[in-house]
Amino acid sequence: MLGPIGVPWRPRILLVTVATTLVALVVLAGGIAAGSAGLSIPDVLAALAGAGDQATSFIVGELRLPRAAAGAAVGACLGLAGALTQTFSRNPLATPDILGVTSGAAAGAVAAIVLGGGGYSVGASLLGFGIPVVATVGGLAAAALVYGLAWRGGVDSYRIILIGIGLTASLGGLTSYLLVRAQLTQAGAASQWLVGSLSGISWTSVWPMLVVLGLAIPVLVSQSSGLALSPLGDEFSTSLGLALQRHRLIVIATAVLLTSAAVAAAGPIEFVAFVAPQLAQRLAGTARPPLVASAVSGAALVLAADVLARILLPGEIPVGIITAVIGAPYLIWLLIQRKDVR
């Protein structure tokens, strides 16, 4: 450790990070190749290198690469956010969803769609703001409300989780009410967004996620020693000089921004923030989810789910359905393993 910076790179963590990165890259190339045009992975690599023919380069660069990049960015944001919340709470079930971020973003987006005219594009708006902006504001507002209600001279990890569950249920009720009151076209557009999809996504939605990821890296490096101390308990961490409440505020704010950016781009893609950190932790054999491996695992998970949604099932279905099908059984298994839930 060097001051507040402590990054214990063990060989197994490095190996798992490199391996999951390679898997993510292979799945990304396979996702770009998959489709009606019948491209091969060598065709994709040639087009990305600028050596493909004009038609292939257009398909790869303009049609499929933005979707693949968005899937990777969404997965990385959610995987990293999940690793942060599970680390500070010392609970594998704690995800940004529990903090109300996803439900707040969903309520904001549905309100924009229903009250703002029923549009689903980025340009559709409520009071002049686009749906991604409204969704981001909704997620941030929900997280701020949870944090404020949980504050009692400090924030306890279990208290913030319980309050987050309650607020998530309330916001879910609000979203359902808006859907019931909406017109048919508005309800259809809102339902499409609520499932979580990469369909029709463009570079306009990718860049904000990349910016948030870039800003999160130096922040998390500065908090790395605090994240290493978090699993040891509040009293022990404080006795070692960690400014616990300040550390938690920074970690929560970073997780909220990462989640809000992902949800604003693709909608609430379920279970990625839950499964990816746990997968990375078990592969690495660590006491807490490794951050970089969690982000890469999230990217690989979303990319793989998107490929499955496009090639293995009749007709394209939203990627959020695939991640829910994958994540729900894992959640049940984790609940059965009582020793892992503490």
From TrEMBL:
Subcellular location: Cell membrane
TM region positions: 98-120, 126-148, 160-180, 200-221, 249-271, 291-312, 319-336
Primary localization: membrane
Gene Ontology cellular component terms for the protein in this record: plasma membrane
Gene3D superfamilies: ABC transporter involved in vitamin B12 uptake, BtuC (1.10.3470.10)
GO BP annotation list: siderophore-iron import into cell
Keywords: Cell membrane, Membrane, Transmembrane, Transmembrane helix, Transport
Membrane topology summary: Multi-pass membrane protein
Keyword match Transmembrane helix: yes
GO molecular function term, any single one: transmembrane transporter activity
Stated family: Belongs to the binding-protein-dependent transport system permease family. FecCD subfamily.
PANTHER family: FERRIC ENTEROBACTIN TRANSPORT SYSTEM PERMEASE PROTEIN, FERRIC ENTEROBACTIN TRANSPORT SYSTEM PERMEASE PROTEIN FEPG
Protein name: Iron complex transport system permease protein
Native organism taxonomy: Bacteria, Bacillati, Actinomycetota, Actinomycetes, Propionibacteriales
